[in-house]
Design brief:
single chain; 304 residues; alpha/beta; D-Maltodextrin-Binding Protein, domain 2; 6-stranded mixed sheet
Length: 304
């Protein structure tokens, strides 16, 4: 059950039917925080208590490989490597539509073919696309919050900015190339850029997995519907790293109507990403995203 009018003082544990908790891991960037906190503030009931943890995306990617959490945010480029252990969720997704991570460098600097670059993690989508476009670049991996500083201090020649960093960086830096442009060239047509989503451990019983995904879909929908109130609450509690105008701009990009549940165009883009990864030797086989999603029709067949 969802409260029709969430209240600012409605911060409570969601009611649930069982006491065995589900761990939900997400990144601390504004869109993940925003999409999850309708649950945290008690606006959406859940089939079990949800225990959340916030970690940077590459730490979450590594944790997914290790099978650490029940539900976790991941970079979409990682998914084919964990498909046997995790189902791909339809909700809390982030796609770029004409935008995305940016390769930045000092203004006027000419990059050599083997330039040194800082990326946010080897399993991220931007890292895979970057490595395809710049096979001779020398890569170092850093927490995404440290990349701009590494470029400014000359530790690296360039860096790929992600999350809120793409909206505001030092005026002495300039964009060398948009990852969006690399994606369009590789995709061969205009498709949204698949960046990140959620995955759920296959060891969770199917009926419970369906209930968990439905609760998360509802949470993202409620968060989007009550965006103004939720954003205000997050800002007042210092739960996001950015100010109100930047948060509004960022949510326009990555937490919007298209984050609630993947549509056909997003699924096509995801399949294209997986095919590109296979063609360039990142995966052992190409996969189709829908084949690895939770079959909600199971409940309909069971109850018919």
């Amino acid at each position: 059950m969802v409260n029709s009018q969430p209240q600012e003082d409605s911060i409570q544990s969601p009611k649930s039917r069982t006491q065995n908790p589900i761990t939900i891991a997400h990144s601390p960037d504004a869109d993940d925080i925003f999409m999850y906190y309708a649950v945290k503030f008690g606006w959406v009931s859940t089939p079990a208590p949800f225990e959340n943890i916030a970690l940077d995306i590459e730490t979450l990617n590594e944790a997914a490989i290790a099978g650490t959490y029940d539900v976790t945010a991941i970079s979409f480029a990682l998914y084919p490597k964990i498909r046997d252990d995790f189902a791909l969720l339809r909700t809390a997704v982030s796609f770029g539509e004409g935008y995305g991570p940016k390769l930045i460098k000092p203004k006027g600097k000419r990059l050599r073919r083997n330039f040194k670059v800082a990326l946010s993690g080897r399993h991220t989508t931007n890292a895979m696309l970057f490595r395809i476009a710049y096979p001779e670049a020398r890569i170092v991996y850093k927490n995404f919050l440290e990349i701009e500083k590494a470029v400014l201090e000359g530790e690296v020649d360039a860096g790929v900015l992600i999350h809120e960093s793409i909206l505001d960086f030092d005026e002495s830096l300039e964009v060398e190339r948009e990852i969006w442009d690399i994606w369009q060239e590789l995709a061969g047509k205009t498709l949204p850029l698949p960046l990140g989503g959620m995955a759920l451990r296959r060891s969770i019983p199917l009926t419970r997995a369906i209930a968990v995904e439905k609760a998360l879909i509802k949470a993202v929908d409620v968060a989007n519907t009550h965006r103004g109130l939720l954003a205000k609450m997050l800002l007042e509690r210092d739960l996001v790293r950015i100010d109100a105008p930047t948060l509004d701009r960022y949510l326009d990009l990555y937490a919007n109507d298209k984050s609630v549940t993947m549509d056909e165009t997003q699924l096509e883009a995801l399949d294209r990403l997986f095919r590109i990864g296979y063609d360039h030797g990142f995966y052992e086989c190409p996969i189709h995203a829908e084949d690895f999603m939770i079959p909600h029709e199971y409940l309909e067949a069971r109850n018919s």
